[in-house]
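Before a colleague's protein record goes any further, I have to sign it off. What it holds is a sequence and that sequence's fold in token form. My question to you is simply how this chain folds and whether the tokens agree. Thanks in advance; the entry in question is below:
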Amino acid sequence: MESNLQSKRVWVLVLVASLGYFVDIYDLIIFSIVRVQSFQDIGIPETDMRTRGEYVLNMQMAGLLIGGVIWGIIGDKFGRLKVLFGSILLYSLANIYNGFVQDVTTYGIVRFIAGIGLAGELGAGITLVSESMSKNKRGYGTMIVAGVGVLGAILAYFISEWFDWRTAYFVGGGMGLLLLLLRVGTFESGLFQKQAQQNVVKGNFWMLFTNKERFLRYVYCLCIGLPIWFVVGVLVTQAPEIGKALQSTDPLSAGKGVMFTYLGISLGDFMAGVLAQWLKSRRKVVLICQVLILIFSITYLTSTGITEGKFLVLAFLMGIGVGYWATFVTIAAEQFGTNLRATVATTAPNFVRGALIPSTMIYGALVPSMGILNAAMVVTACLTLIAVFALSQLQESFNKDLNYVEKD
């Protein structure tokens, strides 16, 4: 009876973490969807749309980068639940305020603050679920969290279609505040509570840099996720500009593209999770995804005269390719001990998101000489090759016992 009760509590935890990530994704992606509409409303000229968009997106990514470190340390020092509550409160309030901005500078600052809040949700949720489930089932738990969570992008698209961009931000912030009520009754990780009583260093971010083997392990974890956000943040978000370069028959909608990409990511997350359980390997799944990214991205970037329908199909297929997001975060969590696990699982996805900044800078530097299409292909190929090399350097973590700590 007690075992059944515990099992139900675990699955309630999975549900709450999934809904948290659902709201997180909604608020994370809403700018990409309403970029053009909101910029037109606050008076940004057409010629500045791409560069100002990169500024605001990079501000959000910088917030994610900094927030990942802050929430990761809090998660390992004070508990995973503290992160789940604190992060959602911060980004919900920021998104509500975002609905009132009147200029691009304020827009960027608010997205930076929202980014700090958004940084905590996924890593803490994945860590909590991974530590609360048995090693032979935790892959299903993290799969559900990410698979359900990314559907928040679908809601973001429809809200932006039904209401104006300011209301879209209000809805995102309001959902986050409502979700706080559902968090009451969730429980802390048993592994965290156990290691909290041990005399070990907890949540010391700098421990990742004091040991060469541990540092390289961390870097390789980051590198396997590099292609994900370039596909979403550039190839899909800049669909209007890429479509013009491809001489598209119809204007390509970034909002629709994001929606179809996230449909693909949701399906990809479920497929990656199931495939990992079947193959008993997360590394093989990530390798398959890298191949899919290359195939579908190059197909997209070489589709001269592309129609809106073909673009949406390719956006969906690229989404399946980058749908190893949950597998990537799970791998990162499984590579490190309990006293650093939240730090790694929270910083890794946000450093990968933050890596969009140098990726877009390199891409932007290549555009004048190579053109938007060739520049996008070169950067995508390079990021994928880096990811494949990093993957080859990591040990398989499927069915790994997580009850251990990192020594100082």
